[in-house]
């Protein structure tokens, strides 16, 4: 009786996976698609690290990975990845597509708000933490194509000439793919603190963002914060003021 083709295919696949698993990570830079860079690789293809990693214009910094070889059959280089920096720890399953896009699933972690960190476009006068719990994230050339999950901003503070001003906490929820015009909108609300906020954050294909909504101060708001909010103009009948801010990364 001849050996079934399925058993032969499995044997070949097992051999290839075992071969790939033992390849040194220092060979990786020459095999990565355009736009993906691994600096100072160590370990193996299966379980390795880069001192600095960039993909699709996104600079992740130092990472470690454990390869998911079966995803190679779908044309994607996928791995469980952990990013560890002084201000950030993020982990999840990340895949690189042939077109250079980055696809992430079950992305969770905590990031410090600071210029030059993992999050782009952070004003230098803001401090705080960001907690991520994302089921899906797709990024290509710094443009977000899909985003589903929750982003929480914790203990946000602003440095002013009168000292640090507490701004409270906020939550953003995104539901999935970008619209036909490339824009992706999340719902914004506060989670407590001196400001009562409701609005939206729209990520644009510029790449950039448009933040808009309404805000009112709570009794615990500092005099400095009350004066800042007053610059937004006259409140409506409910005591709320409209705001909008737009920028490119």
Commentary on this structure:
With 249 residues, the chain is mainly β. It is 12% helix and 57% strand. It has 3 helices and 13 strands, in the order ααββββββββββββαβ. The protein has a 13-stranded antiparallel β-sheet with strand order 1-2-3-4-5-6-7-8-9-10-11-12-13. A hairpin with a 2-residue loop joins strand 8 (143-160) and strand 9 (163-177). It is elongated, with a radius of gyration of 22 Å.
Low-confidence stretches: none
Taken in chain order, the helices and strands follow as HHEEEEEEEEEEEEHE
Query: What structural class do the secondary elements suggest?
Result: mainly beta
Return Rg in Å.
22 Å
What does the average pLDDT come to?
83
Basic shape: elongated
Search tags:
13-stranded antiparallel sheet, 249 residues, 3 helices, 57% strand, mainly beta, 13 strands, 12% helix
Entry summary:
The chain has 249 residues and is mostly beta strands. Helix content is 12%, strand content 57%.
Topology:
Blueprint: H1 5-21, H2 28-31, E1 36-43, E2 47-55, E3 58-67, E4 77-85, E5 88-96, E6 102-112, E7 126-140, E8 143-160, E9 163-177, E10 184-192, E11 195-204, E12 208-217, H3 223-230, E13 241-248
Antiparallel strand pairs: 1-2, 2-3, 3-4, 4-5, 5-6, 6-7, 7-8, 8-9, 9-10, 10-11, 11-12, 12-13
